[in-house]
Amino acid sequence: MIRLDFSNILTEEIGHNGLSLIEIENEAKKSISLLSKKPYKELDFINLPFQDTSQIKELAKKARDYEYFIVLGIGGSALGPRVLLEALSPFNNLRKKNRVFIYDNVDPATFKYIIEIIDLKKTLINVISKSGSTAETLASFLLFWRMIRDRKLDVRQHFIFTTDSEKGNLKMIADEYEIPSLEIPKNVVGRYSVLTPVGLLLSEVIGIKSEELLEGAKEISERAYRENLNENPMAYLASCLYLMDKLKNRKVLVFLPYSDRLKTMSEWFCQLWAESLGKEGKGTTPYPSLGTTDQHSQLQLWMEGPEDKVILFVSIDNHGFQEEIPQEFHDIEGLRYLGGHTLEELINTEQLATEMALRMNKKPNMKIIIPKIDSFIIGQLFQFLQITTAMAGLLYGVNPFNQPGVELGKRLTYGAMGKRGFETEGEEVKNYLKRQRYMI
Amino acid sequence: MIRLDFSNILTEEIGHNGLSLIEIENEAKKSISLLSKKPYKELDFINLPFQDTSQIKELAKKARDYEYFIVLGIGGSALGPRVLLEALSPFNNLRKKNRVFIYDNVDPATFKYIIEIIDLKKTLINVISKSGSTAETLASFLLFWRMIRDRKLDVRQHFIFTTDSEKGNLKMIADEYEIPSLEIPKNVVGRYSVLTPVGLLLSEVIGIKSEELLEGAKEISERAYRENLNENPMAYLASCLYLMDKLKNRKVLVFLPYSDRLKTMSEWFCQLWAESLGKEGKGTTPYPSLGTTDQHSQLQLWMEGPEDKVILFVSIDNHGFQEEIPQEFHDIEGLRYLGGHTLEELINTEQLATEMALRMNKKPNMKIIIPKIDSFIIGQLFQFLQITTAMAGLLYGVNPFNQPGVELGKRLTYGAMGKRGFETEGEEVKNYLKRQRYMI
Q: Catalytic residues (chains A, B) (predicted)?
C-alpha cells in the first residue's frame, strides 16, 4: 500500500510556512464529504477497477503477434499509456520484440522517423480519441490509413480504435469498415482514462496483466469515501496541497519521483492536475520533476528562489537491483566513501538528504512512499493521484472534469485549416498575420 | 539566424499585463552595459566558439569504432549532451549502429537495463565531471571501472574522462592510469559547458561536426556586446523576462518549443535558468514544455489559471517532412478539412493559434523563430539562451554562475554515506530518522 508522509508540511517542523494538523484534518474531512455527494457523473472513474477486461485481453492477444504497436492519441490518450510503457517495460524498444511507439505530437520529423523504422505489414495501430475529433490524432490516422490501403493491406487487420461507445468520427468509421474497437466509458474523461482500454490494451500488449493494475487501483477506490482519515491518504494530500495554495500562496507543486521509471508519471500527473484545477483564476502549476537529476537543476531554485513551491517526493523502497559499488581507490576520499554502498542506498539517501535540506530551510515538502514499482503499485498510484486531484477540485469549487480554456485555440486552428463553420476564426487568423510585428 | 518576436508582450497588444517598448529597451541597454563590464570570469563561455577542436575530433574518431557510447554525468554534464543526441540524432538507438546511453540519475534499475543491453567489450565510457567529485557520476564510474577490470579489459581503451584541466579525482586517476582525457576550460561552469568537450565529443561521435555547432554559436557570441539593440535579441529577451517578473510578478516562464526534437532542450534550459537565477529569493520558475502536446495538458491552466506565467514559444519554419495529409472521408467534416494540408502546416498552425488565443486572453507571450533544426541552429540556440540567462542574472543582481543552495543536501548525503569530515551531518541524518513522522 502507498503511504503518505506529511510531517514536513506541519508548523512544528517548518514554522510559519507550515500548516496545523487541525487545519489539514478539517479540510480533509470536507473533501471526503464533498466527494461523497458525487456531484459529477465523471467521478465514475472511481469504479473502473471493477470493470470486465475480457474484450481487451482478447484483442491484446492478437496484437502481440505484431512486431510494431503504434498508439495515435494525445493528452489523456497518450500520457497514461506512456507511463505504463516506461514504468513497467523500460527500454522496451531495445529489449523486446514488440516495439511500441506513442505518436502524440503531430511532429512531422517524428512521423518520418517512425515510418522509416517500422514495417507496415507487421504494424498494428491503436487510434485513441474519446471524442473522435482530435485534430492531431485524426491527421496522423489519415496518413496511416492511406499507407495501409496503398499497400493493399486490410484495414481490419491493422487498426484498433479506442473511442466513445456511441458517437464520433472514429465510431462511424469503425462501424463502416468493421474496425475492431474498444470503448471508453461514457462518463470517463480523457485525463482520468488510463484505467480504461486507453491504457489497458497497451499494458496487455507489453505483457502487463490489466487485472494487476486494477487490483491495485481497487484498494485505493475502496478508500475514496472513507471518513476515517487514517484510511484516506488522498483526503490528506488534497487538503495539504489546497491549503498550501489558499493559505500560503504556494502556487507551484513539484512532483518529484526518485526513479527514471516514473519520469513520465510526472508528465501524466501534470496534465491531470493542471487541466483539472486550472480554471476561474484558481489552481496551481504542477511541475514535472525527477530525482536525483533535478537536484542538479532545480534544487537551487527551490532552496533559495521565491517562496512559492511545495515539493511532493515519491520515494521507492526497493529499486530491484542491489549490486554494491566497488571499494576501489581507497586513498581517494572522494571515491572511498561510496564503496560498499549500493546505488539504491545512494539514490534513497539523496532523496532523504534533499527532503531534510528543504525542511531545514523551512520549505514545505511531502512524501509518497511506495515499496517498489510494479503493475499493482502503478495502478495504486494512478488511482491515488486521480482521486486526490478530484478532491482538490471539489475543495477549490471548480469542475475538475472540463477544460473550457482550450476551446479558443482549437477554434482558431479549425479556422486556419479551413474547417466548415469556422470561417470567422479563419478571418481572425488572417488579420492577425497581417499585423505589424515587433521582431528582431 | 534566430529571430525574436516580442509583439505579444507589449501593452498595445495585451493591455495592462504588457510592457512598454521604452521600458523594455531601457532595461535591454542596461543588460548590455552590465555584460560589457565582464563582471565574472565565468563569462568566458562566450568565447567558446573560438576554441580549437582537433583533440576532440581525434578522440571521437576512435570512439566511433565502438558500438556503445555511454556518458556518465549529471546536471550540466548530461543535459547538454542529451539535447545534442535527441535534437540532432533522433531515435538514435533504433536507427544507428552506435548506440548512446546518457546515464545521469543513479537509478539502479536503469543501470541494470543498460548493462543488460550493452556488450562491455564494445563499449566506450565517457565520464564527465568538472569537479571530479560528483557523487552520482563517481558511483556509476566505480561500477563500470570494476566491470571493465573484472573482464581483463584495458581501462585505457574503454574510458575517456572529461574534467577539469588541473585538479580533482578524475584528473588524478587519468594521470595514474593514462586514461585519455579532455579538458573543461577552467572558467566555464557546468550548465554553460555544452559547447566544451562535454557536448562536443558526443556530437562528433554521433556524426555532428562540432565546427557547425560552434559556427552557429559564434554568430551569437559576436552580438553579445552590441549596443545597437536591433542586433542584440538576447538583450531584448533578458529584459522582457526580467521585467515580467519585476513589474508584473509573473514567476513562471514556460519554455515551449513545437518540435519533439527540442523537448530535451526545454530541460536543459530549465537547469540553466533555474540554477543561474534562483537565489536571494529572486528568479522565476522555468517550466519545461512541448507543443502541441501541452496544449492538451497545460494550456487550460495557462488560459484560465493564476496570472503568473509568461510563455516563450520556439517555432520551427521547416520540419523537414512535407507529406500531405490524404484527402479521405470527404463526407465527414471532422476529417475532410485536414486533407491536403501537411503535418507541418498543422503543427505550425496550432502554434500560431495558441499564441493568438493567449494574446486574446491578454496573456504575455513571446516567440523565438528558427528556420529549421540542424547543428548550426542548435549551436545558435545554446549560445542565445546562455547569453540571455547571464544577462538576466546581471539585471537581477545575482551571480549567475554559482549554486550555493545545493551544498546542504550534498553535505547531508556525504554524512549519511560516511564520508570523512561530514560526521556532524551524519548525526543529523540519524536524528532526523528517529523523529516522529506523521504518516498514513
A: 275 (proton donor), 296, 410
Q: Note if A275 is an active site residue.
A: yes
Enumerate residues 6+ apart whose C-beta is below 8 A from B210. Answer: B53, B56, B57, B200, B203, B204
Q: What is the interface pTM, i.e. ipTM, of the complex?
A: 0.97
CATH number at residue A392: 3.40.50.10490
Q: Which residue of B has its CA nearest to A327?
A: B142
**pLDDT surpassing 90 at residue A436:** no
Compare all CA atoms of chain B with the CA of A110 and give the residue at the minimum distance: B260
Whether B347 contacts B293, CB under 8 Å: no
Cell of B389: 540567462
Only one residue has cell 551524519, namely: B426
| Residues B381, B241 within the same domain | yes
Residue A440's pLDDT band, with cuts at 50, 70 and 90, is confident
What digits encode the pLDDT tens for the residues B411-434?
999 999 999 999 999 999 999 999
Residues of B in contact with A337 (CB under 8 A): 414, 417-420
Q: Specify whether B348 is located in the same domain as B387.
A: yes
Domain range for A100:
65-206
Q: Provide the CA A143 distance to its chain's centre, in angstroms.
A: 27
Q: What is the CA radius of gyration of chain A?
A: 23
Asked if A439 contacts B5 with a C-beta cutoff of 8 angstroms, the reply is yes
HEC assignment per residue over A297-328? CCHHHHHHCCCCEEEEEEEECCCCCCCECCCC
B291 near A CB under 8 A: yes
Amino acid A168 reads G
B16 in A contact zone (CB under 8 Å): no
| Matching residue, cell 484516506 | A232
Residues A289-332: pLDDT tens digits? 999 999 999 999 999 999 999 999 999 999 999 989 999 999 99
Query: Strand, coil or helix: what is A267?
Result: helix
In the sheet that holds B181-184, the strands lie side by side as B99-103, B68-72, B123-129, B159-164, B181-184
For the annotated catalytic residues of B, the residue numbers are 275, 296, 410
